[in-house]
């Protein structure tokens, strides 16, 4: 994936996404000992960066593929992103969700026009149901993070950030399925001025950290983290990009995530989900190394269950 593909992707999806604001906080800068710039994808349509990749992936389909619709399996933000993108582009979207997914997320998918298909809450069940829809309806499967068009779309958030702040030394994102950090790392490489990419990851689901150590895609045996958006693992499309372009992955504790999340709510006065706070937690953990640097942070989303706040 090259610079021109990122530029073309961004032009393609601009009518369907928001160029989200970038916020700063003098107090957070003092505590971090660095200049932090928060790219607020919690203000993106459907509340998360995933709108970018979903829109790009659908727009790359042929007319025949669009007529037959798209399908994905997701319990969270990509389910909503694909539903809204498909609705905006006049395409049917079948969304396979585990029956254990929060009711609020199921309702959001239906509200965005997605055709909800529930299944057991195992990866096998999700994949089996997706395969059935592909066979029966001719729908095109779009993976939430391990898809070139999705990765390019996610990279446009960092591209916008660097257009506003071209002198960033680092850009930091959470790491889940790997689509956001892979796209971000590509944009940092092509549009930054020697800008490095760092990932933040919970200790409880540190598969990406271990994957970079071992040189192969690792899995998690448990997923006991508050950062529910980061429980997925890397894929064969995004892992090579991460290996080549990501500088480091910093692991953080659950307490550090909660503390960073509270910090964002209190100081930036914005709603962010736990997964988003992982990036700030990583910056605060590495503050000695990042002292006096200019650091961009992608606030990945703001779809949080207000009845289950951790503070």
Automatic annotation (TrEMBL):
GO BP term, example: D-serine biosynthetic process
Example of a GO MF term: L-serine ammonia-lyase activity
Cofactor(s), names only, from the UniProt record: pyridoxal 5'-phosphate
Any one Pfam family match given in the protein's UniProt record, by short name: PALP
Keyword Electron transport: no
Family to which this protein belongs: Belongs to the serine/threonine dehydratase family.
Protein name: Threonine/serine dehydratase
């Amino acid at each position: 994936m090259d610079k021109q593909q990122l530029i073309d992707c961004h032009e393609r999806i601009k009518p369907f996404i928001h160029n989200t604001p970038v916020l700063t906080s003098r107090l957070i800068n003092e505590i971090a000992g660095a200049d932090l710039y928060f790219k607020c994808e919690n203000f993106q349509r459907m509340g998360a960066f995933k709108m970018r990749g979903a829109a790009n992936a659908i727009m790359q389909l042929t007319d025949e593929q669009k007529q037959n619709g798209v399908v994905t399996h997701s319990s969270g933000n990509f389910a909503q992103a694909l539903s809204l993108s498909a609705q905006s582009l006049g395409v049917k979207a079948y969304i396979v969700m585990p029956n254990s997914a929060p009711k609020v997320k199921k309702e959001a998918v239906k509200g965005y026009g997605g055709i909800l298909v529930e299944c057991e809450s195992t990866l096998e069940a999700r994949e089996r149901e997706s395969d059935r829809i592909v066979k029966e309806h001719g729908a095109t499967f779009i993976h939430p993070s391990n898809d070139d068009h999705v990765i390019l779309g996610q990279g446009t958030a960092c591209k916008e950030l660097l257009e506003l702040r071209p002198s960033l030394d680092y850009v930091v994102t959470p790491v889940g399925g790997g689509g956001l950090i892979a796209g971000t790392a590509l944009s940092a490489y092509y549009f930054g001025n020697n800008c490095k990419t760092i990932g933040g990851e919970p200790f409880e689901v540190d598969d990406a950290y271990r994957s970079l150590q071992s040189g192969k895609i690792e899995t998690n045996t448990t997923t006991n983290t508050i950062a529910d958006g980061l429980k997925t693992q890397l894929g064969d499309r995004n892992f090579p990009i991460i290996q080549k372009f990501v500088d480091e992955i910093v692991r953080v504790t659950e307490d550090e995530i909660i503390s960073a999340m509270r910090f964002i709510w209190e100081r930036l006065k914005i709603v962010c989900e736990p997964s988003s706070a992982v990036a700030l937690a990583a910056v605060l953990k590495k503050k000695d190394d990042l002292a006096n640097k200019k650091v961009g942070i992608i606030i990945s989303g703001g779809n949080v269950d207000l009845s289950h706040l951790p503070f």
